[in-house]
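re: ur question from yesterday

yeah so i grabbed the chain u mentioned. its 192 aa long if i counted rite. heres the sequnce exactly as i have it in my notes:
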Amino acid sequence: MSDARPTATEAVEAHVRAFFEGHSVETVVPGPGPEGRRAVPGLRVLVVSPGPRGDSWAYVTAGCWAAMAEDGRGPEFVMTARVRDERFVDLMVMLADYHRGGHRLDLEHSMPIGEPWVPGSACDHLLISLPYLHGPDLEHCPLPAGHARVLWALPVTAAEIEFRGREGHEALERLFDDAEIAPVDPFRASVV
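ran it thru and got these structure tokens back, copy pasting raw so excuse formatting
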């Protein structure tokens, strides 16, 4: 797997850059964490500016697949926000660390953030969903040794996570659709 790591990460980055053609894309290589090492070796966070595909910023991991792929398949993650903020880069690193730390995030999973998405926001979890804002062209990322699936890390509230636990993922997504949430609005009201 170590031979595929740089190739896979570079392929994810190339895929993201091609999808977001016409946008500025910055590659951020996170520094060592509090224990002096990165939990996801070779992780990069691609910071995509607003452009032809949308008026929001996108933060995309490149390196989760290489660290955690099974049978040539594995996820990468995208989060969208209204602004460019280092906090969102850090949040994507936290998501990658959580994923690698034994939680194995996938579609319909969630992760507690441990604090508001941004100060004053009720959203304190990330829900892993299909990348509805970007569609299947971003979601499906072919790699030399397999396939990465770029999934959306959508900030949600604890009440929404509890509802999903009782009623199911699709029921929660229907509530999002009915309420016509603005997914990049950190101050949106909870749908439950």
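noticed a couple things. The beta strands are 25-28, 44-48, 57-62, 73-81, 110-112, 123-129, 140-143, 146-157. also The chain has a mean pLDDT of 91.
anyway ttyl
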